Amino acid sequence: MSLFLDEERGMLPLAERARPKSLEGYFGQKHLLGEGKPIAQYLSRGKIPSMILWGGPGTGKTTLALLCATILKKPFRALSAIQAGVKEVREVIEAGMRQPGMILFLDEIHRFNKSQQDALLGAVEKGIITLIGATTENPSFEVNRALLSRCQVYVLEPLTPEDLLEMLTYVSKNDIVLKERIIHFSELEALYSLSGGDARKALNLLELAVLQTAGTVELTDALIIDIAQKNVAVYDKGGEMHYDIISAFIKSIRGSDPQAALYWLARMIEGGEQPDFIARRMLILASEDIGNANPNALLLAETCYRSVEKIGMPESRIILSQVVIYLACSVKSNTAYAAIEAALQTVRTTQPFPVPLHLRNAPTGLMKTLGYGKAYKYSHQFEGKEGNQDFLPPELKGTVFYHPSDKGREIEFKVFLKNQWGETYKV
User: Fold this and answer.
1) pLDDT, tens digit, for every residue of 349-358?
2) Crossing angle of helices 86-98/114-126, nearest 10°?
C-alpha cells in the first residue's frame, strides 16, 4: 500500500500528496507520538479519548486525526466550523448512533459559538462520538468550559529543523513526483526560517523549488529566498500570514516602535482580522513584556479587550490604535514572566516540599497539637517588619524567583523588598 495518497492523484499539491497514511510518514510531535507518550499509548490500546489539538498551521492536526481513525479502523467524519452548524453536527451524531466508534474531526473548533459547541456535549459525554477538535487559538479562551472538561488538550509544537529535514528527505524519496528528481539539500537555513516549523509551508517551498528548477535540484538558501519573494501571500486571517503579522505586531510593541506596530495593526484591520484576537494578544503582552514596570498597561489592555468586544469594527480601530501606542511607548519589563518560569522550573525539578508547620491552617484540636500554625506571626502586627519569618520551605530558603528591574514602578518594588528582607533575598 502506498504511504501517500493514491498515485493517480499525483497532480495534487505536494502538501496534500504527502499527507501520510501511517505514522511512518508523520513527523514531529514526538512528545505525543513517541514511545510511551500519550497518544501513542492510546493508539496501542485501540481507543482514544475526545481531544483538542491546539497548534499553529502545518503542525499536523488534521493529519493526526485522520491517522487515528485509520489506525483504529473507525468511521470518520470531518467538519469545518466555518461552514458547519448545529444541523450538520446533529447529522454526525445520528450517524454515530448507527456506526459505533465514530470519530468526528472538527476543524477550527474555536469558530463554533456556544450553542454549536453545546450541541456536541451530550454525544461526547455518552461516547456516541469521539471528538477531535483542531484549533489555532488557546482553547481556554475559545472552547466552552463544559466541552473542554470532556476532552484532553494536546499542544502540537512547530516542527524542529531536525523534524523538517527528516520530513523533506522522506517525501523526496517517496512522493510520486519528487522521487523521479535528484534533490540535494545543500542549505536549509532559509527554508527553516521561512517555514517557521510549518510543515505545509516547507513542503510548498520544496515543491516550488522543484517546479522552477530543471534537472538536479540544488536546494540553497538563495533559491528559497528568491522563491519566497516571488510568492508573497496576501494577508489571510485563517492562514500563515495571520501568524507572521501578529508576530511582527507583538515584537514591534515589545521593541517600543509605535510606528511599526501601527503599520502591522493596519495590515490586520484591513485584512479583516477579528479585533478581539488583536486585543487579547495585547492583553498578554501588557503582562509579559511590561508587567509591574507599568501596572496600568494591563488595566488599559483589559479595558481595550472589553471595549472592542462591545463595540466591534470599524470603531474599535481607534481604541486599538490608542492602546497600541500606549503599550509601545511604555517602559518594558519581563520580570513577571521570568519569575513564574523560574518558579515553575523549580517545582518541576525538585520534590514537593511540605508546607512549613507555622504556615499551615489548624482548624482542629489535633492539628494544633501537631504544631499546625504554631509560631506564625500575623503580618499586620509587624507592619514594616513582615520579613521576620520564613514563607518558603526550608530547602528553598533564600531562593529568588522575582528580580525587579530598574525600570518604572519596579524601582519602588526593589527598594521595598530590600527594606523588608535585607539579605534574605538578594534582589
Assistant:
1) 888 888 887 7
2) 10
